[in-house]
Design brief:
The complex is a heterodimer of chains A (about 210) and B (about 725).
Chain A: E1 9-13, H1 23-32, E2 41-46, E3 56-61, H2 69-73, E4 79-81, E5 87-89, H3 99-103, E6 110-112, E7 117-119, H4 125-129, H5 135-139, E8 145-149, H6 156-163, E9 166-167, E10 180-183
Parallel strand pairs in A: 1-10
Antiparallel strand pairs in A: 1-8, 2-3, 4-5, 6-7, 9-10
Chain B: H1 7-17, H2 20-28, E1 31-32, E2 49-55, E3 64-70, E4 73-79, H3 92-95, H4 98-101, E5 111-113, E6 122-124, H5 127-145, E7 150-154, H6 160-170, E8 175-176, H7 184-194, E9 199-200, E10 207-211, H8 223-232, E11 236-240, H9 246-250, E12 253-255, H10 262-275, H11 281-287, E13 288-289, H12 291-298, H13 303-310, H14 314-327, E14 331-333, H15 345-358, E15 368-369, H16 409-418, E16 426-430, H17 434-437, H18 441-449, E17 453-458, H19 463-467, E18 470-473, E19 485-487, E20 495-497, H20 512-522, H21 533-541, H22 545-554, E21 557-558, E22 579-580, H23 584-588, E23 608-611, H24 629-632, E24 637-640, H25 642-647, E25 655-659, E26 664-671, E27 679-681, H26 703-706, E28 710-711, E29 718-719, E30 724-729
Parallel strand pairs in B: 7-8, 7-16, 10-11, 10-14, 11-12, 13-22, 16-17, 17-18, 23-27, 24-26
Antiparallel strand pairs in B: 1-2, 2-3, 3-4, 5-6, 5-18, 9-15, 19-20, 20-21, 23-30, 25-26, 25-30, 28-29
Helix pairs in contact in B: 2-21, 2-22, 5-20, 6-20, 7-15, 10-13, 10-14, 10-15, 13-14, 16-18
Classes of the chains: A alpha+beta (about 210), B alpha/beta (about 725).
């Protein structure tokens, strides 16, 4: 794809707006033909009956990381990072080994049992090409997700990032530099896990914190 | 209207009067071709794609959508950003709409029962055989038992108007809808206070008390989205609910109010507003009738008294009354929707309406508003008169102030079973499922046992269709041409929407309009159906060219402009021409003119009160078998508090049996602090008897079997929170 300025897609998620209605999950499932029992995105609940703290619902999906451990874990180069920041899986190259699934600190990948290949969110790349936002973004009743080009200083996501009141979910010990940001004050930050990387994969030093 | 008895002439005169362009647009409908993907080497390249506007029908909200069609197959439903009512969103159910269309469980051709009722043995008929049979039965029942011996029940649907028209032409006044299992007591209460049922302007409100309503799960557009927008802007939300719903979870304050005591809470709020002079005196003096009587009436209802009833601390009640008054008029008691809860539910909702009146939020930003609605035209008809018909509806007189045009499912069902005051022997249901939504399923079965003939028009074999003698397959909303529908929503988002077929009707499914039209031919009632849907739409839009244009270009017509401050100086449509705290018509009908508190029936020892509710991916019973939504929830469970669960030896996930005087059911226990120790809950739409619902057959329990069928004494609305149940581990 020819582009005058390189794009870098990102999403800012405001968990305080999410009502856990699952519209994003069903929209994604239909848009991307995700098989039964599998999901490309999710909503994590933090419910608090005591009422001392407000409950919170936190949507999420592949974070299109700048240092993606999944890419490093792929033995055949089927998954790669595109110029527009998207982490993509080439279905023709994928051998379905599952290395990338356990290499993701966010549990964002699954193995499609029908196609026997890895699968995950790609911010609805095919919709982006049509000039449409990802299915999860536009369908959301309370507009919890804001999508845009982080390289475009006039975009809403850039404005929010520059305001600085955002946080990222970072796994202990590693930082894959994710491109999904959450609103400051979000409490669900500890769910990312240290990925299981195959022994022969060598990540750059700055990857390990 | 003089032309009403001659539909042919009136239609001809319309064509002459209206512009050809407008007529063509109305017929052509909202379609647009956006892309034809021809370039590129990706998957899907070269596929002809087309996008069309429509309106969702996964619940009653009619949210605007855009359907993407590739090679004749609907691939995706997206929100229509032009639809102000739906605030450019589509919920989980809306997104799952394609599985209502592409569902292997769909009814495919007419079916006639060949075994016993509910046995599930059918044989296939041609449409001619099916329609001849139905017409014969209708003719026979009409002649034997009068035309009122046939009952019609149509759910919320843009074509239900044709079922009502058919009932009128056929000559029966026994027409009911789903509403008497839902919101009639709320409508009764607000109508009898303000002379009209208002809409809450949630978007601009600063303080909302939401009693019982669960807007973040039981989605109502735009209220659900507006509530979040308002809260992000600083609006305070207080939720009163025995359950920790997601609305409660996201509220600023949640009180697990003792079920059935909401009126005590609001009478105490009113008592504080009055005793502390916190109401708008000018507003009250100008617009309210009966303040002196009401002042004297509520003096007894102090917050300290209400604390004992509601289990909400008196100091919080007093504080909330003051906070409401400080935020007024941009403050409200949210009127809610489903109010089929207690035998005095109209009076409970009257107490909500009265507090709103005292807050002076009428016709004000952030209060209760009455937005403008588009008045569409129609094709009028003169229904024949049947001399032998009885004088009134079969359920007449069973409630103090029933809505004549709605009736009551509960009372009609009782009347059918009793055969009084006259027998009803036939029943047509369209897209409504009282077997799942009408409390006391065994009584519905008993009612059906009293019928000679029952026919159901539906998309799938619902539990109600399963009990019918003749089942007729209808298309989904994505395959249908519907009439124009004007809807009332909140501030600046009422409007008009319609539907055209996105894809042709599948299998042998036929829309209910076609069915009643075919039946009218066989019953010699053609004069009432001498038109097509296109003719009907033209008549609806005859004087509304701007609507035609908007529907074509944007898939929706939005009424913009101010929605408040538009009724200033106009009299209220009540007897006193004012807002009625004291209702003199109630006195005439033997109803308390002001809400008098009666404590709810106490929960007997070793029993629980069962309450009804919703989540965001269930529309009563209509969506639980949808294969996409089924992935979110494939059975229901019994919410029970850990304390009583432990006393009963019930662990999370155990199978339990729930027993009430009405029926029983078995399901898994969900042991949770998200409900009060005296209250249990289960979702609607499971425990089905229809084997035609392959995803959910055999899953969970049916709440309609367990609930007893009490009724609101004023409106005849079903009262579904008056059932006490026992639970045991099995």
């Amino acid at each position: 794809m020819k582009q005058s300025t390189p794009k870098k897609y990102g999403i800012v998620i405001d968990g305080s707006r999410c009502i856990d209605c699952k519209a994003c999950m069903i929209a994604c499932k239909v848009e991307n033909d995700v098989p039964e029992g599998m999901w490309r995105n999710w909503i994590r609940p933090l419910q608090n009956v005591s009422g001392k703290q407000k409950s919170e619902f936190q949507p999420g999906q592949c974070m299109q990381c700048d240092d993606p451990s999944c890419v490093a874990a792929c033995p055949v180069g089927a998954t790669y990072k595109q110029a527009d920041g998207l982490v993509i899986i080439d279905p023709k190259k994928c051998i379905g080994c599952g290395n990338c699934v356990s290499a993701c600190p966010y549990g964002a990948r699954y193995r499609n049992p029908a196609k026997n290949i890895a699968d995950k969110c790609d911010f609805c790349q095919h919709r982006l090409k049509r000039g449409e936002e990802p299915a999860c973004v536009i369908t959301c009743p309370t507009k919890s997700r804001i999508f845009g080009d982080l390289n475009d200083p006039t975009s809403e996501v850039s404005r929010l990032v520059s305001e600085g009141k955002l946080v990222r979910v970072i796994a202990p010990h590693i930082n894959t530099r994710p491109n999904i940001y959450y609103r400051e004050g979000t409490r669900l930050l500890d769910w990312a896990v240290t990925p299981t990387l195959p022994g022969n994969i060598h990540m750059p030093a700055e990857f390990w914190e | 209207m003089s032309a009403s008895s001659k539909p042919t002439i009136s239609r001809r005169s319309f064509i002459k009067l209206s512009g050809a362009a407008a007529a063509a647009a109305a017929v052509g409908g909202p379609s647009r071709v956006l892309h034809a993907l021809v370039s590129g080497n990706e998957e899907g390249a070269g596929v002809a794609a087309r996008e069309m506007f429509s309106a969702c029908d996964m619940c009653f909200n009619k949210c605007g959508l855009i359907a993407r069609v590739e090679d004749g197959v609907i691939k995706k439903l997206d929100p229509n950003p032009h639809s102000l009512k739906s605030r450019g969103m589509l919920c989980a159910r809306g997104n799952a709409g394609i599985k209502q269309l592409y569902d292997p469980d769909r009814l495919k051709y007419p079916l006639l029962r060949k075994g016993g009722r509910g046995e599930g043995k059918w044989h296939r008929l041609t449409w001619d055989q099916a329609l001849d049979h139905a017409a014969e039965q209708m003719q026979r029942i009409g002649e034997t038992y009068t035309r009122c011996g046939f009952l019609f029940m149509a759910g919320t649907d843009m074509q239900s108007t044709f079922v009502h028209r058919f009932a009128e032409a056929y000559g029966s006044y026994n027409v009911i809808s789903h509403e008497s299992n839902c919101l009639l007591s709320r409508n009764r209460a607000f109508l009898d206070t303000f002379g009209v049922v208002p809409t809450p302007d949630v978007l601009h409100s600063k303080y909302i008390i939401m009693p019982g309503a669960n807007r973040f799960e039981a989605l109502v557009t735009p209220d659900s989205m507006d509530l979040m927008t308002a809260m992000q802007g600083g609006c305070k939300l207080v939720v009163l609910d025995p359950r920790f719903t997601k609305t409660a979870a996201l509220a600023d304050e949640w009180y697990a109010i003792k079920p059935g005591t909401d009126m005590a809470f609001f009478l105490a709020i009113a008592q504080v507003l009055i005793s502390e002079n916190l109401y708008d005196e000018k507003f009250v003096a100008e617009k309210i009738n009966g303040l002196d009587e009401f002042k004297a009436h509520v003096a007894q209802y102090t917050p300290e008294w209400a604390e004992k009833e509601t289990e909400i601390p008196a100091r919080d009640i007093r504080r909330m009354a003051r906070e409401l008054a400080a935020a007024a008029p941009a403050a409200m008691i949210y009127p809610g929707r489903r109010s089929s809860d207690y035998t005095d539910s109209t009076q409970i909702r009257r107490s909500f309406a009265i507090v709103n009146a005292l807050l002076g939020n009428w016709d004000r930003e952030g209060g209760l508003i009455v937005p403008k609605k588009i008045k569409t035209g129609s094709i009028y008809h003169d229904a024949p008169f049947y001399e032998d018909n009885p004088e009134d509806r079969v359920d007449a007189g069973r409630a103090q102030m029933m809505f004549d045009e709605e009736g009551s499912f509960k009372h009609t069902r009782d009347a059918v079973i009793e055969g009084r005051p006259y027998p009803i022997k036939g029943w047509l249901t369209y897209k409504t499922n009282p077997m799942q939504t009408g409390a006391n399923r065994n009584k519905t079965i008993q009612m059906i046992d009293h019928l000679d003939f029952m026919m159901s028009v539906d998309i799938v074999m619902s539990d109600t269709a399963w009990m019918a003698d003749l089942v007729l397959p209808a298309p989904s909303y994505l395959e249908r041409k519907d009439p124009i529908s004007a809807f009332l929503a909140s501030s600046s988002c009422s409007g008009v929407i319609t539907r055209d077929p996105i894809v042709p009707a599948m299998f042998e499914s036929r829309p209910v309009f076609w069915i009643v039209k075919e039946l009218s031919k066989r019953l010699d009632l053609t004069e009432s159906f001498d038109f097509t849907i296109d003719d009907f739409r033209k008549a609806q839009l005859e004087k509304l060219p701007e609507v035609v244009t908007a529907l074509k270009n944007e898939g929706v017509y939005n009424i913009t402009g101010p929605s408040y401050g538009i009724h200033e100086g106009k009299p209220f449509k009540t007897k006193s021409k004012k807002i009625e705290l004291f209702n003199s018509r109630y006195v005439e009908n033997g109803v308390d003119p002001m809400p008098v508190y009666h404590p709810p029936q106490p929960v007997p020892r070793d029993h629980f009160r069962m309450v009804v509710g919703r989540n965001a991916f269930i529309t009563q019973s209509a969506s639980t078998n949808n294969s996409l939504l089924w992935e979110l929830q494939n059975e229901n469970s019994l919410w029970i508090h850990p304390k009583p669960a432990s006393n009963l030896g019930i662990n999370h996930g155990d199978r339990v049996e729930v027993v009430s005087p009405a029926g029983r059911g078995r399901l898994k226990a969900r042991v949770t602090e998200e409900t009060r120790p005296d209250t249990v809950y289960m979702d609607t739409g499971f425990g089905v008897i229809s084997k035609g619902l392959s995803n959910i057959f055999g899953k969970g329990a049916c709440i309609a079997e367990i609930l007893e069928d009490h009724a609101d004494s004023v409106s005849g609305n079903m009262a579904m929170h008056e059932t006490f149940i026992r639970v045991r581990r099995v």
